[in-house]
Specification:
Layout lengths: L1 H25 L4 H6 L1 H16 L5 H31 L4 H32 L8 H45 L7
């Protein structure tokens, strides 16, 4: 339908805008991909929650998915930016910075996701059935997406970051090894 194609266009446009902003922020074309991949990871939770609750995927659910796309990338941006800062400022190597950065961001990511999910629960918890009102689909989409993306951001995103950055890290280490040692004067 025409309405569904408009929603797909809006979702695609939002992903392009997120990519452009994160590419400018990280000054990289690979790191934004590890951030953007949190959206399909969040869709896993969206589809699971709709499946298990028996709710109908309405246009409000599509709106929830678009909103969720903007919300779930925030945790990945915080994680990737923190790892980048550790690599830049603390001079840590790729693996050490990724592990330390992820461990240091577990609590803030869990806190923001938990408070958002708890804030959304009243939309769905007081309904008699899964399809009782228009807010249920929106709430289910956001809650399911946030729950699954939180787990994936803390596990899959660091792995993707290492996968995307290890080639550049190897080149940096090789260049440092080949550089002439400073001569003591």
């Amino acid at each position: 339908s025409d309405e569904r194609s408009q929603i797909y266009i809006v979702l695609g446009l939002s992903l392009v805008l997120i990519f452009m902003v994160t590419a400018a922020l990280f000054e990289s074309l690979k790191q934004p991909i590890s951030v953007l991949l949190t959206v399909p990871m969040a869709l896993v939770g969206v589809f699971l929650i709709f499946f298990y609750t028996g709710a109908t995927f309405t246009r409000e659910a599509y709106i929830g998915v678009i909103m969720m796309g903007g919300i779930v990338v925030n945790n990945a941006i915080l994680l990737v930016d923190h790892v980048n800062q550790l690599r830049r400022r603390a001079g840590l190597d790729l693996m050490e910075a990724t592990v330390r950065g992820t461990l240091e961001r577990v609590r803030p990511i869990l806190m923001t996701s938990t408070t958002t999910v708890l804030g959304l629960l009243p939309l769905v918890i007081f309904s008699d059935t899964a399809n009782a009102n228009i807010w249920n689909a929106l709430g289910y989409a956001l809650i399911g997406g946030l729950l699954s993306s939180t787990v994936f951001v803390l596990t899959v995103t660091p792995a993707l970051y290492v996968l995307f950055e290890r080639g550049a890290e190897r080149r940096r280490v090789r260049a440092a090894q080949l550089a002439p040692a400073p001569v003591a004067g």
